[in-house]
Every structure is written in C-alpha cells, then in structure tokens.
C-alpha cells in the first residue's frame, strides 16, 4: 500500500493519495514523512480541512518520537482556518512532548496575542527567552524572533524595561537587525535611558543613529543634514504604490501621472490639506470668497466624497484608502495646492505626495523638518525658524510666512486654575515645568535642569510622565546630580483644558533641546506661562525661538545651554 501511495503522489493524483493515506493512518502504518508530504499537498490545494483530519487521525493511531512535529503542523493549519481553540491545544500538545520547541513557542504566543491574551503570551515566552544562549552559544534566527516578539508585546503592555532588555539581548546576538534598531532607540528615548545611543557589540552610536527614522533623529541630533538623510531613508523604505482595485478602473486612468502641471484655472483656488481629524478647525480660518478648502483626513471620518468646507469639519477619511486611491481622489477633485500637515509622523501619508496628485505641493511642518521628497515643492516657515543659512539643508524651497510658521487651533478655555497643592506642588518657591514628551529630554538637557535646581534651592521641576519606571529612572538621575528626588514632581497626561490650568500654576516653562517642545510650548504661552528656550541649527531646535519672537518675548530665547541656565 505504501508503494501505491508513493506512486499516486508522484503522479500528482492527490485524491487517490489522500484516500490511501487515510487508510494507512487508520491502521497506524503511515510514516510521518508521508504524512507531511500528503498534508502539504492537500493544504496547497486549498483543502486544509482534509489535512487537519488526516493529522488528527494519524495522531490517534501513531506514536513516534516525532509526534510533536505533527501536533505543531496541525496547530498551524488550525490557526490558519480560524480554529483558535484547536490550534492552542495542538501547540500545547507539541510543547508537552518537546518543551524547548521554539517554533511551537512562537506560534502559541502569537496565537494568545491574537486572542487578546498578551499577558499569557509573555508568560509563555518568558522562560524560553531567559534560557536563550545561556551557555554562551549563538542564538538561532528563531530564538531572535522570540526575543523580538517578547519585546514588542512587552512594549505594548507598557513593560518598557522588559522590552528594552529583550531587544538589547537580540541586538547583541545579531547587530545587523536594521528593522529592530529604530524600535530599540525609540524605547530608550521614551524611557530616558541615557546614553540613548549606547554602543552595542558591532554597533557604534553613529551606526545606531544612521538606522533611525526621522522622529528619533530629531530627538537625538541637532544636525539638519542628518534629519534630511533620515527623511529620505524613510521614503526609500516605503513600499511601491499599489494600483486601485478593479472597481476603480474607470477613475484611475491617470494613476502614477502627475497632476496637470498648469493648474486647473478655478475661480476659487482649491486648497487640499493632508490632515488628521485634529486639524479640522483649519478650514474655518480661510477666506471662503477666495478659497475652496478640502480636508483629506488620515483618520476615521464618516463620509463618502470630499466637499468644499465652510465649517471646521473634515470631508473625507483616506485612512482606509491606499496611497494610489487617495492620490486619485485628490486628482478627481482638481486640487490646485496640496498642503501636508504631518510629514513623516504617525498621521503622515508621504506615499500620497510621491504620486504628485496636485500641481503644487507644500510641507507645512507639523513635524519640524524637511520632507526630503522631490515632489514636495515648498516648505512653509518663518525667518526665525529657517534663517537663510539653513535653507540648503531642506529639500523644498522655503516660503516665508510674515510672523509665525506654526498652525495650532485656538485652545479651549482652561479649567479652573486651582491651588498648587491640588497638583502636589509646594505652596511657595519657583515651579519650573516641562510637559514635552519624555523622548525629547536628553541627558545634557536634564543635566542643565538639575544645575538650575541647585542654583534655585526653593524650586521644583514639574514633568509629565505616566510610567512609574520612567519616574523612578528620572529620580535616580536627579540624585546622581546631587538633587533630592522629591524636587521632581510628576503629572499624568490630561485633556488640554486641564493641561492649560496646570500651566497657570507654574512659573516658567523650560524648553527642550535639540527638539523643542513646539505644541506644548505653544499651549503654555496661550495659557500665559513664559517659555525659556534654547535654539540650535535645525528646524526642530528653533520652534521655541519662533514662538517667542511671535509672542514678543525674544529676550527668553538663548543660543547655548550655558546662557539658558544662567538666564
């Protein structure tokens, strides 16, 4: 019968081979090699249910040293067909027979994560991760995957020290993981693990920085040349645009072609914004007699067609559209000028701009850096943000606004001011604050703040940090500078009206360098809190100076940390 099975498989007669295999499995005489072969053929012919049934029959009647592999293959097929309960049982059966089976450990943990049981996924992986290369031997590729997935899930659960430790070990075993380095650096920035670019075996700080996306590079360096290189590196990593589906074939004839280069000659100039739902108020700030405003929102906004707006509401979500579909939608509305408000941040759609859906495309930097894109023509700036000597470090042509480059909605009225004690602040003494993201706090900036506290004995520093591990890390850093840890006061993230009320009980907002606070600094000024800023050589390090110039407070702008500290 075994010869018949081999002949049927060689002839490609899958139906006959399956019949013979089921018969042999029921008798307990089907070899595991033949089992794998026929099940692979059945799964390849979109018959996974037959392969699953054959594995289950074989496991009831056969007992070999390789049964764990059959359980694993069964689990994979059950997971693919949506039988999560069966897959979990099969993975656990494989691990009961072979506890160190890395493939099954990976599969079970990922299955638990898909079932929204991430804590159990970490528990599944914790022991095996701890044992990886404990004897000093090299880690295998599958073991590195285990470490990387452990770090990813731990980061999702905000277990940042565990995530950082797992990724550090993974990079120590294999430093050539270009896709992992950005996550590791970003996590260290988020946790203020200084030096952030700590050298690893086979990786220098310069190599680590060269692998980072723009967001991390802005936080780590004041060099606009490195910022431009990071932006272009992100663009190079974008997947090629996919054409719209068959249903869109009537409207995508010009896909991939530039918009008409001479414009559309509309009576009212059509301005489109690549935006998020938080940018909706921008529409109401235009003169409706001269401009028709369209918002193309990378967020879940209801609606089926873009329309000119007279009210501050978004017109269409492009979140579920491919870059090609979004670009075609913009072309279909004959947009004269397309303005990108997000660049390479999480709400950005650089792939849409790469398809040139509008004759004129402008970067209005919500992320303070050049886009690096050849299809983005201009960058909106002001003379303080982008002095002439920095123009060579951006890929766009600068367009100068008369006062301030930054667009932000008018903030809602602050909540009631309240007392300092309600915020855990001392009743007297100076309250310095900085509510910029922790990713923007560098070792040199924190050291400067500690020297300020030492020279102002009655003062405290008020920071925003939701994670207790980060708070403890900053307290220890303060102690190393000779500053008592209780002089750091921490706040949780709150809605904007409450944040504005907080600013009203502080005395001075201390800006960050090389990535200025930007949004939170603007909010502080709106709330009446003075801002002390230090500028550098890049756009990201000059937003504070730009805000102070527009607010009529240029005397609070410095150009060195020494002058910042002294002032």
Could you walk me through the main structural features you see in this protein, from its secondary elements to its overall organization?
With 567 residues, the protein is of the alpha/beta class. It has 22 helices and 13 strands. Helix 21 (543-550) links the parallel strand 12 (531-534) and strand 13 (557-558).
Q: Which features does this protein show?
A:
10% strand, alpha/beta, 13 strands, 22 helices, seven-stranded parallel beta sheet, globular, six-stranded parallel beta sheet, 567 residues
Entry summary:
43% of the residues lie in helices and 10% in strands. It is α/β, with parallel strands linked by helices.
Number of strands: 13
**Arithmetic mean pLDDT:** 90
Major sheet strand order: 3-2-1-4-5-6-7
Amino-to-carboxy terminus distance: 91 Å
Task: Tell me the layout of helices and strands.
Elements: H1 2-10, H2 14-27, H3 32-44, H4 48-61, H5 67-80, H6 84-97, H7 102-114, H8 118-131, H9 141-156, H10 160-173, H11 181-190, H12 205-210, H13 214-220, H14 224-236, E1 269-275, E2 291-297, E3 316-317, H15 323-332, E4 337-340, H16 350-353, E5 360-363, E6 378-381, E7 397-400, E8 431-434, H17 443-455, E9 460-464, H18 468-480, E10 488-491, H19 496-503, E11 508-510, H20 519-526, E12 531-534, H21 543-550, E13 557-558, H22 561-566
Parallel strand pairs: 1-2, 1-4, 2-3, 4-5, 5-6, 6-7, 8-9, 8-11, 9-10, 11-12, 12-13
Helix pairs in contact: 1-2, 2-3, 2-4, 3-4, 4-5, 5-6, 5-7, 6-7, 7-8, 7-9, 8-9, 9-10, 10-11
């Amino acid at each position: 019968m075994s010869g018949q099975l081999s002949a049927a498989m060689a002839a490609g007669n899958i139906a006959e081979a399956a019949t013979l295999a089921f018969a042999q499995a029921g008798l307990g005489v089907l070899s595991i090699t033949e089992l794998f072969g026929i099940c692979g053929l059945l799964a390849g012919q979109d018959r996974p249910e037959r392969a699953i049934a054959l594995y289950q029959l074989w496991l009831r009647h056969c007992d070999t040293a390789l049964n764990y592999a059959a359980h694993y293959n069964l689990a994979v097929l059950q997971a693919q067909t949506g039988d999560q309960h069966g897959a979990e049982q099969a993975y656990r059966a494989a691990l009961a027979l072979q506890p160190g089976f890395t493939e099954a450990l990976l599969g079970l943990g990922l299955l638990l994560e898909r079932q929204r049981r991430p804590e159990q996924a970490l528990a599944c992986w914790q022991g095996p991760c701890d044992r990886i290369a404990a004897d000093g031997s090299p880690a295998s590729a599958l073991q590195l995957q285990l470490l990387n997935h452990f770090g990813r899930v731990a980061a999702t659960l905000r277990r940042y020290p565990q995530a950082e430790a797992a990724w550090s070990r993974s990079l120590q075993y294999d430093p050539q993981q270009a896709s992992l380095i950005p996550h590791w650096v970003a996590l260290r920035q988020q946790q203020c693990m200084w030096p952030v670019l700590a050298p690893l075996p086979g990786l220098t700080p310069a190599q680590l920085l060269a692998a980072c996306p723009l967001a991390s590079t802005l936080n780590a360096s004041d060099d606009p040349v490195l910022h431009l290189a990071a932006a272009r590196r992100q663009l190079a990593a974008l997947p090629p645009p996919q054409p719209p589906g068959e249903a869109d074939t009537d409207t995508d004839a010009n896909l991939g072609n530039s918009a008409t280069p001479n414009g559309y000659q509309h009576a009212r100039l059509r301005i489109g914004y690549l935006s998020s739902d938080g940018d909706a108020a921008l529409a109401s700030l235009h003169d409706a007699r001269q401009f028709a405003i369209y918002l193309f929102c990378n967020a879940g906004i209801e609606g089926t067609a873009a329309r000119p707006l007279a009210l501050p509401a978004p017109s269409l979500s492009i979140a579920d559209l491919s870059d090609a579909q979004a670009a075609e939608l913009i072309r279909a509305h004959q947009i004269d000028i397309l303005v990108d408000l997000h660049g390479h941040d999480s709400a950005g759609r650089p792939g849409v701009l790469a398809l040139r859906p509008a004759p004129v495309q402008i970067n209005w930097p919500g992320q303070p850096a050049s886009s690096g894109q050849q299809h983005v023509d201009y960058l909106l700036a002001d003379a303080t943000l982008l002095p002439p000597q920095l123009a060579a470090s951006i890929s766009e042509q600068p367009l100068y606004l008369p006062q301030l480059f930054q667009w932000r909605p008018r903030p809602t009225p602050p909540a009631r001011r309240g007392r300092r004690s309600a915020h855990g602040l001392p009743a007297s003494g100076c309250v310095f604050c900085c509510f910029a993201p922790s990713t923007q706090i560098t070792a040199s900036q924190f050291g400067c703040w500690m020297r300020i506290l030492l020279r102002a004995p009655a003062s405290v520093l008020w920071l925003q940090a939701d994670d207790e591990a980060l708070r403890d890390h900053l307290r220890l850093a303060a102690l190393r500078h000779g500053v008592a840890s209780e002089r750091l006061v921490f706040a949780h993230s709150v809605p904007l009206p409450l944040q504005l009320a907080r600013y009203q009980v502080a005395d001075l907002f201390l800006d960050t360098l090389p990535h200025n606070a930007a949004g939170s600094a603007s909010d502080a000024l709106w709330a009446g809190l003075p801002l002390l800023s230090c500028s550098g050589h890049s756009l990201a390090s000059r937003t504070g100076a730009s805000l102070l110039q527009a607010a009529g407070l240029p005397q609070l702008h410095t150009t060195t940390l020494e002058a910042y500290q002294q002032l």
